[in-house]
Write a structure and sequence with these properties.
The chain is mainly β and 347 residues long. It is 0% helix and 56% strand. The protein has no helices and 28 strands. The chain has strands at residues 4-11, 19-26, 31-40, 47-49, 55-62, 65-73, 80-89, 95-98, 104-108, 114-119, 130-133, 148-153, 160-164, 169-176, 179-187, 194-199, 205-210, 215-222, 227-235, 246-252, 258-264, 268-274, 280-287, 293-298, 304-309, 314-320, 327-335, 339-344. A hairpin with a 4-residue loop joins strand 25 and strand 26 (314-320). It is globular. The N and C termini lie close together (7 Å).
Length: 347
Amino acid sequence: MGKQYIGYIGSYTKKESQGVYRFTLDTEEKQITNVEVAANLDNPTYLTISNNNQYVYAVSKEGEQGGITAFTISDETGTLDRINSQATDGSAPCHVSVDSKNQLVVTANYHTKQVEAFLTNEDGSLQPPKAIEHEGNGPHERQEKPHLHFAGYTPDEQYVVVVDLGSDTITTYRPDGDVLQEVSVLTVKPGSGPRHIAFHPKASYAYVMTELSNEVIVLKYYEKEGTFEEVQYISTLPEDFNENSQGSAIHLSSDGKFVYAGNRGHNSIAIYRIKEDYTVEFLEWTHTEGDWPRDFVLDPTEQFIVAANQESGTLVLFERDQEKGTLTLLQKDVQAPEAVCVKFLNY
């Protein structure tokens, strides 16, 4: 394994951002370097990288249409070359995932209420999608309709899981080609606004970040049935904090010992220890040294975490204590305009 790792940044392009950026993490020097444009694209807010590091699929906007653009990762420098895109009328999706065999791309759309499934071709290009529209709402003022915020795979890839902030639901689908067949729906606490889900790497549990109630939900996952059961709710904010804050990303360490959850507004990453029964206990908050941490990622060595502050347009590098789970600031104010999503190549 090398000591330099290439990562990618998805962004909004409302101000000065030009699209998808790439950067290098030097684990020996403990710094982020070489933030530069990898692909010019309109509002590539979220992206995903194929398991074999050959393709990137990025959310994209094309005029009055939104969809996904496929790229090849052309060489060791990580340059992105456009293959094709598929777009339909309406807003672009806000989340995209691809299965490990690079056969099916799935997206969640916050505005159009749809989950879409795109079959890929041998060259990584995308076929036109098939869509399913959600129904429902919730008690919060932002829950007037479905707002899908995550579409991804269960660890065994037997199911696609869609997290719907607008209707407080987590829906499991069974993919059959590009047709998604509904298997089950879990309705979580009304008004919680679930946003993202992350699975435990070694046990049948999952962890959900809620955007509206600022909580982590621990779920028991039944693999055969594709169903979930609520186990625990725990706040991601201090009890005395009453300013605006919205939950963002959630990630687990691959040893299954720690959960990290992002708070936009409180501008922190909340850190939890996973206990023997897979519930969590709060450890501490780490400030993200910027405004509105939309996403963060553990690097391939898991010795570091890179956080993206959307409003301040910065990346922040933390060193991670792999025994305690805690974070120490190494580098801040790395310019990354309108950064929304951070991903590393698979090493």
